[in-house]
Prior knowledge:
By secondary structure, this protein is mainly β.
Amino acid sequence: MRLRSQALAVAISALGIAQPIHAIELDFNGFISVGGGIADNDELNLDVDYDEDVSFNEDSILGIQTTAPINDKISFTAQLVARGKEDYDVSAEWAFLKFEANDEFYARAGRLRAPFFAYSESIEVGYSYHWIRPPSEVYRLPFSSIDGVDANYTTWLTDDWQFTSQVYFGTFSDDVDIFGLESDLDLRNGTGLVLSANYDWLTLRGSVHYAEITVTNSDFDTLDAALRGAGFDNVADDIAVDENGVMFYEAAVLADYNDYLFIAEWTMLDFDRSALPDDTGWMISVAKRIGDFTPHLTFAKEDDDGETGFSDPIPAGAALKAKVDDLETEALQESWIAGVRWDFMPSTALKFEVQYTDRKEPEDDDTMIYSVVLDAVF
């Protein structure tokens, strides 16, 4: 919807300058997802925290976005999001100034979506994809926005192929969930390059990212203190996540041909030696539109491969050796997702989904998750 409003004149008394009154045209839009789910096993510590009681928090979300033109080249965009699983506390996911030089180039500064995945820009707009939620084996990073700048360039390579590139630099600092623990994540010198090529029904995407991260939480702090107290400072330094470098790679293929949809996406996290394991995830999804209905099937897999040898300097049988060895445990998880999307009204979709997740390592366990969500955009 569009709202016409008159900006108030602002007098800057220190400079004696009066700002003129402008008519500012604001564009408002938003999105909402309301739904619930249940799981037959809540011991796996998945990104979606359903248990044996029906919950309406995990997949429910509300977002409001507004864009205000400042002049013919510069505009301001803000997006506020409230998530059910965070008690509907409001957070600013977008808050940036945009400079649009021409149809081919624009740059932004402020709070931006981190362009890690194919669906990063619309990650919380459930209406924009066929799942209730993207597979966590791939879409698994504990944050989705950064504070920084980016530059974007789009051109036509041929009459049929459009090429887009994006470079960015940014930071992030906040409390996040890592391995089920509330942790303080400080990300610095985040840089990345995203390249994509589009041909009518086909999109090819690849990206590479680098950052330096520091992670602290109660478990890390306790183990660090115990190791240093026992004289194993070198082991403590080895496993610490303190300004460690990390590379993130991503590649995706998206095909939307006639009534068929195919998505494949692969990601890899490569950490400098630390307590955080390297991680690879990938998924394949297929869907078919049949009138207002879109049935779909997805397979996703994640494989964590941790560093080894941290505990070698600690004598066999020591209690600390076992605690350090726990950091070297590998993780392997697979999920099957089957569902149907029903576009029964304009800008509104009802989704039903069944997810089977099998965690093979470090423990052998599985769960079934049943979900239903109503998505809408306005």
